[in-house]
Amino acid sequence: MKKIIFILLLCPFIATAQNTFKAIIKDEKTKEALDSVSVFLNGTQNGSTSDEKGFVVIENIPNGKQTIVFSSFGYRKIERNILFPQNETIVIFLEPTSEELEEVKVTSTRSSRAIKNTPTRIEAIASGELEEKSSMQPGNIKMLLTESTGIQTQQTSQVSGSASIRIQGLDGKYTQLLQD
């Protein structure tokens, strides 16, 4: 009688056996391993992402027919029905989408434009002024910039004498100094 009760208590645990899914995910055209592919058990929060070798593992999958979903940016999402338990590592090939991002070009030109026609404020310091200030204190750009309109300099270190430059109240990281 004790054996029958023990077997009946053990049956629910056997019926909900948990399985492990293992796969290697590759690009269909290049056959190269794909990393950061999202893989999850459909209808649950159970999932994982592939590593740099394309390998992914999902644990705690119940017995029976389960749908595994594979998705990654730039590839078509696919769903595979897999019957569990299964112990082999399968290889999944993802098809790249034909959609490509548009190319972005950044160009720069040196053209003569009036400062008043530019969308942002530009301050130009004449070479005569540079020569005059450099003869008084060579290498002291802080002195030169302090006299320009809209520019504040703030000493950041007493020991090294370094300073932060603010233009129109913006932090120094938004400031760019160009030398011609």
Q: Using only CA atoms, what is the Rg?
A: 33 Å
How many domain modules? Answer: 2
Number of strands: 9
CATH topology of the largest domain: Immunoglobulin-like
Rounded mean pLDDT is 79
Q: What structural class do the secondary elements suggest? A: alpha+beta
Summary keywords:
Immunoglobulin-like; 2 domains; 4-stranded antiparallel beta sheet; 31% strand; elongated
Short synopsis of the structure:
By secondary structure, the chain is an alpha+beta fold.
Describe this structure as you would to a colleague.
- The protein is an alpha+beta fold and 180 residues long.
- The chain has two domains: 2-94, Immunoglobulin-like; 126-172, no CATH class.
- Helices cover 17% and strands 31% of the residues.
- It is built from three helices and nine strands, in the order H-E-E-E-E-E-E-E-H-H-E-E.
- It has helices at residues 2-15, 127-136, 141-146, and strands at 18-27, 38-41, 47-49, 55-62, 64-71, 78-84, 90-94, 151-155, 163-167.
- Strands 3-2-5-6 form a four-stranded antiparallel beta sheet, with no helix packed on it. Strands 4-1-7 form a three-stranded mixed beta sheet, with no helix packed on it.
- It is elongated, with a radius of gyration of 33 Å.
- The protein starts with a helix and ends in a 13-residue tail after the last strand.
- Residues 4-11 have low confidence and may be disordered.
